[in-house]
Amino acid sequence: MQAALAEKTSEPGDPLRRMAELLLDFAMEAEVSAKRGAEAHERSDERTGYRNGHRERRWDTRLGTLQLQVPKVRQGGYVPSFIEHRKRSEQALISVIQQAVVQGVSTRKVESVLEALGIEGVSAGQVSQLCSALDEQVERFRERKLDQSRYVWVDALYEKVREDGRVESMAVVIATGVNAQGRREVLGMDVFPTESEEGWTQFLKDLKARGLKGVQLVISDAHEGLKSAIRKVFKAEWQRCKVHFYRNVLVHVPKRSQAEVSEAMKAIFVQRDEKSAKAKAAEVVKQFQARFSKAMETLEAGVDDVLSYLHYPAAHRVRISSTNPIERLNLEVRRRTRVVGIFPDRAACVRLIAMVLEEIHEDWLTAEKAYLTFEDQAGGQEADTGKVVPMAANQ
Questions:
Q1: Which one-letter DSSP state was computed for residue 271?
Q2: Residue 204 above 90 pLDDT?
Q3: In the prediction, which pLDDT does 309 show?
Q4: DSSP 3-state assignment of 390?
Q5: What residues have CB less than 8 Å from 104, skipping those under 6 apart?
Q6: Residues 303, 305: Cα–Cα separation, whole Å
Q7: CA atoms within 13 A on the CB side of 361
Q8: What are the residue ranges spanned by the domains of the chain?
Q9: Where do the H-state alpha helices sit in 122-251?
């Protein structure tokens, strides 16, 4: 079914109408199989009738005229239930539109489809209203109870949202974590006018109020407001993103020398313990101090925060040393939101992104392999440095 849907919707033309036709054809085949007690070409003692090909049927809907392939049966005939009951058909079409929007088909494109079909007077705003039924599902996902997450990643991406008659670039803040079984989860998301200490503090407090506990390490970029919020809300250790740190240092190095400095910095992050890493960092500073004083000042100031991951098990370090895991998630969100361009309001932005995140969240929880392995779920683990990292108490 999914392969057929992907093939059908990749064809040029009207994507929503093709999706509706395909899904309704699939529903009719399933209905006929249930009524006749057997699939097409299936041998069964419980069969109550036989198929006799298909007939085309025109069906006028809010999406325009659909061309359906209605199965024919030899005894008793067949009329699809969604044609018999108008309410059911409306629900089917609304579900198609909802899924199309979640998959990134913009409401403006839906409006263009309707106009091309000769249906006038249906605005993009009215199409968006058809998606409002998703709001209840979005709220359940965003307000569900949380549990333990030893590591938490937080980041923000920006989307254009229309508010009070103006288009604003708003911060979409997202938090992910790893649960007690070692599986990734989307913990929460929200939309704020901008990144600020107040906004981040409220967001993290909401996660805590929903039950998030056991947080030992929070991984993020070096946004000052976020750092302060992490200290106030979780009182957890902070890991500065290693990749962002590289960029912060190299921005003060001429391009012709960036490869040289980058190669030297790599030696810091291959060390097995914090003491060795700091000693290597001191060597790098000494090597380049005279040539790139500002870059080395940045390195010295941030090296403690960027080495926090060395306090944790070696098997976890690659994944907890940067925000790369959540930035890959951001890329998937942007792929879906790109076609929208400008969201009509903040609620529409929350609706689409939350639904995308819920899809990804479910994929993570049902993945074949866990993201991380915790050898001792009850009492913590011992890292290579010999430092015991206990499970945090309920915070």
A1: -
A2: yes
A3: 96
A4: coil
A5: 335, 336, 337, 338, 339, 340
A6: 6
A7: 20
A8: 2-135, 150-236+337-379
A9: 124-130, 134-143, 197-209, 224-233, 242-250
